[in-house]
């Protein structure tokens, strides 16, 4: 595919566009969480469980990903379990730890909400050449690492 001409933009305009996307996404996450009967933190934690797939995370893994204490993640997991989103399974290598698995019906319910959005995003990506998709992917990955590193630095100074 031939890359389509794109309007010129400055780094400041790109940053502004990114801020707008993030703000829109945050509002959307709150609304979607309400639709599925969860808090944003609980929905985020559930997303990490889904993302892990067969490599079931521990409560400690989730606490680190969501930046909460292990006590707080216990409350999150209790709510997710009561709502039918997850099950806890004993760790086969260490009986003191538990692993967290997503309930297939809950995964289907959440995917049902997100699928129309992801379909639209895929249509948007189809407007870009493979080289542009590679740049976008590189930027998303590098920006995610930068954001995580910055949050880690910020958390340590508080």
Question: Major sheet: order of its strands?
Answer: 1-2
Instruction: Give helix and strand order, one letter per element, not per position.
Output: HHHHEEHH
Strand content: 5-15%
Work out the radius of gyration: 18 Å
Task: Quickly give the structural class.
Answer: mainly alpha
Instruction: Give the distance, in angstroms, between the N- and C-terminal Cα atoms.
Output: 48 Å
Number of strands: 2
Spatial shape: globular
Mean pLDDT: 92
- Tally of helical runs: 6
Describe the main β-sheet briefly: 2 strands, antiparallel
Helix content: 55-70%
Q: Show unreliable segments.
A: none
InterPro entries: HTH_MarR-typ, MarR/SlyA-like, WH-like_DNA-bd_sf, WH_DNA-bd_sf
Protein name: MarR family transcriptional regulator
Pfam family, one: MarR_2
Domain HTH marR-type: 1-145
């Amino acid at each position: 595919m031939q890359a389509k001409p794109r309007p010129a933009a400055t780094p400041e305009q790109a940053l502004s566009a990114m801020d707008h996307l993030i703000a829109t996404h945050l509002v959307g996450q709150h609304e979607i969480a309400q639709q599925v009967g969860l808090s944003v933190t609980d929905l985020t934690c559930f997303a990490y469980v889904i993302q892990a797939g067969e490599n079931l995370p521990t409560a400690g893994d989730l606490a680190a990903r969501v930046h909460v204490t292990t006590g707080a993640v216990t409350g999150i997991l209790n709510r997710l379990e009561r709502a039918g989103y997850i099950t806890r399974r004993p760790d086969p290598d260490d009986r003191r730890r538990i692993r967290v698995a997503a309930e297939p019906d809950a995964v289907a319910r959440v995917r049902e909400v997100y699928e129309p959005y992801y379909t639209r995003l895929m249509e948007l990506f189809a407007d870009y050449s493979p080289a542009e998709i590679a740049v976008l992917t590189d930027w998303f990955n590098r920006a995610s690492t930068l954001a995580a590193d910055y949050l880690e630095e910020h958390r340590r100074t508080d």
